[in-house]
Write a structure and sequence with these properties.
Layout lengths: L8 H14 L7 H6 L9 E6 L10 E5 L2 E6 L13 E10 L4 E10 L1 E6 L2 E6 L7 E9 L3 E10 L4 E9 L17 E5 L2 E5 L8 E8 L2 E2 L10 E4 L7 E10 L11 E4 L10 E7 L6 E6 L4 E9 L7 E6 L3 E4 L9 E8 L11 E2 L12 E7 L6 E8 L6 E7 L15 E2 L7 E6 L9 E9 L9 E6 L14 E5 L2 E5 L8 E14 L3 E13 L4 E4 L7 E10 L14 E5 L17 E5 L6 E5 L7 E8 L4 E4 L11 E4 L6 E10 L9 E7 L5
Antiparallel strand pairs: 1-2, 1-4, 3-10, 4-9, 5-8, 5-10, 6-7, 6-9, 11-12, 12-15, 13-14, 13-16, 16-17, 18-19, 19-22, 20-21, 20-23, 23-24, 25-26, 26-29, 27-30, 28-29, 30-31, 32-33, 33-36, 34-35, 34-37, 37-38, 39-40, 40-43, 41-42, 41-44, 44-45
């Protein structure tokens, strides 16, 4: 019991108010600082104790209470020097009420009590009572978070207080559905689906129900914890899980957002049925077929030598069919098939089925047949290979222009073996003569063993590029004799694949038995971009016949195909000197048009004892060879350029050797054709 002098309640309240109104701030003690940092858990009341009934100033103590149910009697309630009378306690709690709904607030106190919901007063018993007062009210709490506050005042004498709130769970009163559970998540562990979700905030929660693909799977009893373990059928199927919350009034929430989990697949697919076995069309294997299984991703084929024997796997397939190409001859086989699904579950084997006949073992099929065209695109080389262990016989190559290739005709080429016996991979090649341009060849390579059995053919096709159609004969061909050669002109070829022209020079010879023949004396290549050409010839009055043959990029031409070609005949001008060149000259002369395009370059052999040389050029106007070098003779070299030679004509030259006694040798003679200048 405190012995301090008691201050009347009215005066104490007035003092407290005056202190608060004055805004006085007293230094905080260590205890006061500590109480200010108190934090209470969810749903736990935070109690603050004041030395007055107006909750003014700094609280003397802060504590956490799981319930409001106090009987202070006439003592100090906080144990921190509160007065026995005229003290106050304030409790607050903020919590999630879920979907809210009807609640009852029950209060009892001696002396004063007030109850607030989000600052709105719901109960008010605020007097200095001489006995305990009680009051219960029904309140509808909205959904979500809300704050409750209970203020208690002990004016004088005995003091006690109690307050409780609880949902009203009668089905006739509570019509509010709980909120749907949130944060549903799930994992798969082995055969089970592990589900968990956030705890529902409803104060009247009775439990949860779990649904799989819309159907209830958690049983008739409600789950009291936010977790569930399901063991779905192990089929690999996907399942959508949802959860509902149920309150004590029987109201069920909407379903939560779904989480989808795939169950583990440990269910084997169905056993294949309808297995049939028949000799393949070529008589060299067994064709198996069966009814496909809906969820199978592949099939395993088994083989035994008796119906009840040991079945060994011989291969897999992704379709409901298989060809056994490894069957040995003169052995009876039985077959069975099993299905495997995407989860690697293997079915039982099908009912065995016998082949019913035996086979002849064939040599292995050739592999990797390729064809490579040569650089001139006139022929190609075949190459192929086969594992060394499968090389059992001769190789043969057949070809035709249709497929499949007949294997009873003449062999197309003779294979060349590039590997020795025992090699891991045996390699072969051969070079057939395939000259038909534009033709597609179908080529089959087979292996023949010592028993004469022929392997399945390895067939490829190959097309020789181009064609064998010669360009059309040139038209509009004309020829004109000029001082510098025969000027030929013709129309441009219309063929798009033209490569060049060939100008042939010759004569026509009549033969009584075979008719006329063209005898070639020379030819010149001309680019396909040009349809005119000067054939360089000494204009000495001879008569010539000219052919112009068009050649395409594949080498086709009328001459090559021995077909008639238009021609033109022309007689040269006669520009030869009228003065004959004496014989017996020691000078060997070579005259050519200068590479610069103007003049004539002269080169001759060195003459023994010669001290110099003289150059002469024929002048048609004077009908004489006129000397070009000066006198006395300065020319001691064996080369000289006539820079005065006119273009567009033919020039004739003499070169003589001059001896020490002043005599001249017989002249060496030659001519040069200088083309007209262009530009």
């Amino acid at each position: 019991m405190h012995t301090q002098k008691r201050i009347p309640a009215a005066r104490a309240a007035a003092l407290a108010l005056s202190v608060a109104a004055a805004g006085l701030a007293l230094p905080a003690t260590a205890a006061q600082a500590a109480t200010a940092s108190v934090t209470c858990g969810t749903g736990v009341w935070k109690a603050t104790y004041y030395a007055n009934t107006t909750f003014a100033g700094t609280a003397k103590k802060t504590a956490c209470d799981t319930a409001i149910s106090e009987n202070y009697g006439t003592g100090d309630p906080a144990g921190v020097t509160l007065p026995k009378d005229n003290f106050g306690v304030r409790w607050t709690v903020t919590r999630d009420f879920g979907s809210g709904g009807p609640f009852s607030f029950a209060a009892s106190a001696q002396d004063g009590i007030r109850v607030y919901l989000d600052g709105t007063r719901k109960i008010n018993l605020w007097k200095d009572y001489t006995s305990t007062q009680k009051k219960t009210v029904n309140v509808t709490v909205p959904k979500g978070k809300h704050t409750l506050r209970v203020d208690f005042a002990a004016f004088k004498g005995k003091a006690n207080v109690a307050f409780a709130y609880a949902p009203r769970t009668s089905a006739s009163v509570d019509k509010v559905k709980p909120l749907a559970p949130t944060a549903l998540k799930g994992t798969v562990s082995g055969y089970t689906s592990q589900l968990s979700w956030a705890k529902n905030a409803e104060l009247d929660l009775a439990g949860y129900r779990v649904y799989r693909n819309g159907g209830l799977i958690s049983g008739s009893s409600l789950l009291t914890k936010p977790a569930y373990t399901d063991t779905p059928p192990p089929t690999g199927a996907k399942y959508a899980y949802t959860v509902t919350a149920v309150d004590k009034a029987g109201n069920a929430s909407a379903k939560s957002a779904a989480v989808t989990l795939s169950s583990v697949d440990r269910t084997a697919p169905a056993v294949p049925t309808g297995l049939t076995v028949a000799v393949s069309a070529d008589g060299k294997g067994y064709d198996l077929a069966w009814t496909s299984v809906a969820d199978a991703t592949r099939y395993t084929v088994y083989r035994a030598t008796s119906a009840t024997g040991t079945y060994s796997s011989i291969g897999t397939t992704y379709t409901a069919s298989y060809t056994d190409t490894k069957a040995a001859e003169k052995i009876t086989y039985y077959y069975a098939v099993a299905a495997t699904d995407a989860a690697a579950n293997l079915s039982a084997k099908s009912v065995p089925v016998g082949a019913g006949t035996t086979l002849t073992v064939l040599p292995a099929t050739i592999q990797n047949v390729t064809a490579t065209l040569n650089s001139s695109a006139t022929w190609f080389t075949l190459n192929w290979s086969i594992p060394g262990a499968d090389w059992t016989g001769d190789m043969k190559v057949y070809a035709s222009k249709t497929s499949p290739v007949p294997l009873d005709g003449n062999e197309w080429c003779s294979p060349y073996r590039e590997s020795n016996l025992g090699a891991a991979v045996a390699k072969f090649s051969c070079t057939p003569n395939a000259s038909t341009r534009g033709a597609t060849y179908y080529i089959a390579v087979v292996q023949v063993d010592d028993d004469g059995d022929v392997s399945l053919p390895a067939e490829i096709s190959f097309t020789i590029p181009g064609d064998e159609i010669a360009p059309a004969a040139v038209t509009g061909l004309t020829a004109e004799a000029t001082n510098y050669g025969i000027a030929l002109d013709w129309d441009d070829s219309p063929d798009s694949d033209l490569q060049r022209y060939v100008v042939y020079r010759g004569t026509i010879v009549e033969d009584d038995e075979d008719g006329a023949h063209f005898i070639t004396e020379g030819y010149q290549y001309v680019s396909g971009a040009t349809s005119e050409f000067v054939y360089p010839l000494e204009q000495d009055g001879e008569t010539w016949t000219f052919l112009v043959d068009a050649v395409d990029v594949w080498g086709n031409s009328l001459v090559g195909q021995r077909k008639p070609i238009p021609y033109v005949t022309v007689t040269e001008l006669n520009l030869t000197p009228t003065v004959e060149t004496p014989s017996g000259s020691p000078v060997d002369l070579d005259a050519t048009a200068a590479s610069s395009g103007t003049g004539v370059d002269l080169d001759w052999s060195s003459v023994t004892d010669a001290v110099s040389y003289r150059v002469y050029r024929w002048n048609p106007a004077t009908s004489a060879y006129e000397r070009l070098t000066t006198d006395p003779d300065p020319l001691t070299a064996t080369a000289w350029t006539d820079t005065t030679a006119a273009s567009g004509t033919t020039h004739y030259y003499w070169v003589t050797a001059v001896y020490a006694d002043g005599t001249e040798s017989a002249p060496g003679a030659d001519y040069a054709i200088v083309a007209p200048t262009t530009g």
